[in-house]
Amino acid sequence: MFHEPANVSQEATGDPAKNMQDERCGAISNRWSGSAVREFLARLRTPAPQLEAVRTQLLEVPSLISIRAESKGDIDAIHAINKRLFETDTEAKLVDLLRSRDKLIISLVAEDKGKLVGHIAFSRVQNEANPGIRGLGLGPMAVIPERQNCGIGSQLVQAGIGHSKSLGYDYIVVLGHPSYYPRFGFMPARQFDLHCAWEVPEDVFMALEVQANSLSSVKGLVMYEPEFNEV
Ligand SMILES: CC(C)(COP(=O)(O)OP(=O)(O)OC[C@H]1O[C@@H](n2cnc3c(N)ncnc32)[C@H](O)[C@@H]1OP(=O)(O)O)[C@@H](O)C(=O)NCCC(=O)NCCS
After folding, report:
1. What does the pLDDT look like over 150-168, one tens digit per residue?
2. Same domain, 188 and 144
3. Which has fewest Cβ within 10 Å: 87, 208, 220, 228?
4. CB distance 34 to ligand 1 below 6 Å
5. Does 25 share its domain with 5?
6. Burial class of residue 46, CB neighbours in 10 A (0-12, 13-18, 19+)
7. Which protein residue's CA is at the shortest distance from atom 33 of ligand 1?
8. How many other CB atoms are found less than 10 A from the CB of residue 36?
9. Is 148's C-beta closer than 6 angstroms to any atom of ligand 1?
10. The whole model's pTM is what?
11. Are 215 and 161 within one domain?
């Protein structure tokens, strides 16, 4: 359906910002970054409705980045990434606290040539009316600035969704950028009549059914682990 995009991202262009991105992302991973894929698809004149599906396929192509579960040796680097990427050290402390209480259900790292460049965490959430339905909260999540916009965050989210599914969780919620998470299937949680227990703007609280129709009869407040209020 489409050709090998061999030189799409490696050609120097007259756009200094794009050339910098090519350098940051590296030859392989950059081939699948959002802007490189858009450029490639534009050249193919792919019809607009198919863009997102093709982009998703391309982002799933293996790159040099490895996405794997955290190991003991990663703990300091994960702390450093979260401390660096957020305004305070709250997220870094939260991840440590959840881990110390065995509440870090999924913790994945992105590694590039032995260096950690990103991290994503998932912990349990509870729906007050349906405690039997198994939910996870995505977050925090961070990719180091030098490697952002290379598809690493997307790989972390997709891997996390896959792990959630194989662990038998029913749904995932996230408090995050409303223009970022819909690309992975997240929808405003209010569409499921689900609401965050904290007072947050409605559009930043999103939900994804990991198992088909798992949220069809679930509604009400969703509560994160108490550790979120301790840090
Ligand atoms: C959000 C974050 C994890 C994304 O990681 P990433 O590796 O750059 O993500 P990807 O390369 O997979 O995706 C890049 C896309 O995300 C978009 N994006 C990045 N930050 C965004 C934001 N704050 N709001 C909306 N979209 C954002 C980019 O515009 C890009 O879009 P495109 O694919 O249409 O070009 C990263 O920017 C980050 O660590 N930010 C600081 C910490 C943070 O905000 N964490 C998330 C808390 S919800």
Report:
1. 999 999 999 999 999 999 9
2. yes
3. 87
4. yes
5. yes
6. middle
7. 34
8. 24
9. yes
10. 0.82
11. yes
